[in-house]
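Thanks for the sequence, V.! I ran AB hydrolase-1 domain-containing protein right away. Repeating your input here for the record:
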Amino acid sequence: YLLLKPPPPKICGTRRGPPITAPRIRLRDGRYMAYKEQGVPKDLAKHKVIFVHPFSGSRHSLLQISQEVLEGLSVYMVAFDRAGYGESDPFPERSVKSEALDIQELADQLQLGQKFYVVGLSMGGYPCWACLKHIPHRLAGVAMMAPVVNYWWPGASKEISGEAFSSRPLGDKITLRIAHYAPWLMHTWSKQTFLPSFLNGIGKEKFMNKMDLEITAARKNAGIPHQETAIQQGTSESLHRDLAVGFGKWDFFLANAGVPVHVFQGDEDNLVPVSIQRHVAEKLPWINYHELPGVGHLLDFVPGLNDKVLTTLLAS
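Predicted structure:
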């Protein structure tokens, strides 16, 4: 029992938790959510954009958009710590729907207006799908960059999903199966070091393309700011809960979005197989699919791409 049970989270602002350093809002259920802003002042902005961070990221993962684009297009952007990450309170009842409702409440409390844009990166893609399902009337448009695809998504081809799943390393396949079928095992499984997986980070360079390797080396040399603070409250309510929701049982497959949706995907992405991303784009023909040759998974570090994603989204 003690091996299976994760330690309680170290909630920010409590005696045993990290300090509060970010602006925060209080949500409908009493939880606190931290956020970070960039761009022009929201009262002057023509476009309001909410950014959804990836797995092991935080509000500090906010896309680096050139000042020229932000000012030229009059853009206000805000990123937030998803539940359990950074300085946002954990939420054990977290679900696909709650991700969308948290985004909606952030927009309401920051007074972003009736319509806003959402941009998600990697694991931040499934909250974007959640918004398209649960709050489509609030969206002006959505862009996803290398969004992680749920291999158990209803409506997707079992054959193609199975082939894409089979292409993953053994450690990743076990991690994903635990996330889907037995999330209560995740804490114990995360301690293992004999099999490389994206969860323990062992041997991850073996599965990167040339561009991702170059980006990773450059980031190591420069230092990666805020990496530890993303999971400072503990991994059980951040990383592990994220996997359980993102690869859990979903009850929907969208028929029509009703708003512009763009998906950007590298054709050498070894974390999100391009085959399953192509399949989703074929099943949902209203998606504007942008495949990037020679590009891996780390899209937010591809020179000029962040600007391109934002300008493409706002132009649509």
